[in-house]
Specification:
Shape: elongated
Strand content: 5-15%
Number of helices: 10
Oligomer: single chain
Length: 315
């Protein structure tokens, strides 16, 4: 009975916190971006991903580091106390939510795998996209895309290869390699796991930012920027990848405002957009150590307070 109450309380708190944070992020994420005009595309993409995954990460960490220890240490295990209707209902709803998330992530992976298997029929492997496997496929769609989350590979249709010049193809491939290095398709799988209503606009903004960040990572001068812009225009004529293949990232989406904005950025290329290697800044070390000391010093009172909150929730 003690273990069942522990699980019920932990899952109930996780569900409530996750729901509240998801609602706040879904409603207020645009307000946070009012000062994002001077951010780099990579910085914006990383921030939007952190914002999108914040409800799940905060709920998991709070449950594991606060709720669970507070219950195990402060709840009397000898007291025969019924589980209660609220923990049972909320805990069951939480398990259902997690089960649906796992189902969506697995379904996205399987659908993408089936689509990739069809595209790879008759494909030939190419060595011009190191360190990512590059396959020349027979079908016209997708023209150029990264497919797969766990073991990504680059797909290039023969028609697209014939249409692009050598320099255009090389910059386009560097764009796709940038997606692989940032594990963008794996991030999409995470989105499917924690899919909640009201997050579609945030995910769309993240997708646009990742495309611009990959553009910046693929070019280092104005000539390469124009080559990539030309490749975008040429490949935008091709049909996009199948909608069921969720874990794919194509170079050129159908013509629209996002594509026009990317082309305009490349035509007006700025050297400040060159993606530079990030180095660890030791200036953050004192602040991080101070925060860690504060957490350790206040951990016991936090556990006591958390136990009071969970007791109030399940009464």
């Amino acid at each position: 009975m003690f273990a069942l109450r522990c699980v019920g309380v932990s899952l109930s708190f996780f569900l409530l916190l996750y729901s509240v944070l998801s609602l706040l992020v879904g409603r207020g994420w645009r307000l946070v971006l009012r000062r994002a005009d001077k951010w780099t595309a990579r910085g914006l993409a990383d921030f939007l991903f952190l914002l999108r995954s914040f409800p799940l990460a905060a709920a998991v960490l709070s449950t594991l580091l606060l709720v669970l220890p507070s219950f195990l240490l402060l709840e009397p295990s000898v007291v025969t106390e019924p589980v209660g209707e609220i923990p049972l209902v909320l805990g069951g709803a939480c398990l259902l939510l997690l089960g649906v998330g796992v189902f969506r992530a697995v379904r996205a992976h399987r659908r993408t795998s089936r689509a990739v298997s069809g595209w790879l029929r008759g494909a030939t492997i190419d060595s011009h996209c190191y360190p990512v496997p590059l396959f020349r496929i027979q079908t016209a769609s997708p023209a150029l895309a990264v497919a797969g989350g766990l073991s990504p590979l680059v797909l290039l249709s023969n028609k697209a290869a014939e249409l692009l010049s050598g320099r255009e193809l090389q910059t386009a491939l560097r764009h796709e390699v940038a997606h692989v290095r940032q594990r963008d398709n794996l991030k999409k799988m995470l989105f499917r796991f924690c899919e909640v209503p009201g997050m579609s606009s945030l995910e769309s903004a993240w997708a646009e930012a990742t495309e611009m960040a990959a553009d910046d990572a693929a070019v280092s001068n104005s000539c390469e920027a124009l080559d990539l812009a030309s490749a975008l225009i040429k490949l935008s004529r091709f049909a996009p990848a199948s909608a069921s293949a969720t874990l794919t990232t194509g170079l050129a989406p159908p013509a629209g405002s996002a594509l026009n904005a990317r082309i305009a950025r490349l035509v007006q290329w700025d050297e400040s957009r060159i993606e530079r290697t990030r180095t660890f800044s030791w200036y953050w070390t004192p602040a991080a150590m101070g925060a860690l000391v504060c957490i350790i010093a206040t951990y016991s009172p936090m556990l006591i307070r958390m136990h009071e909150i969970t007791e109030w929730l399940v009464r």
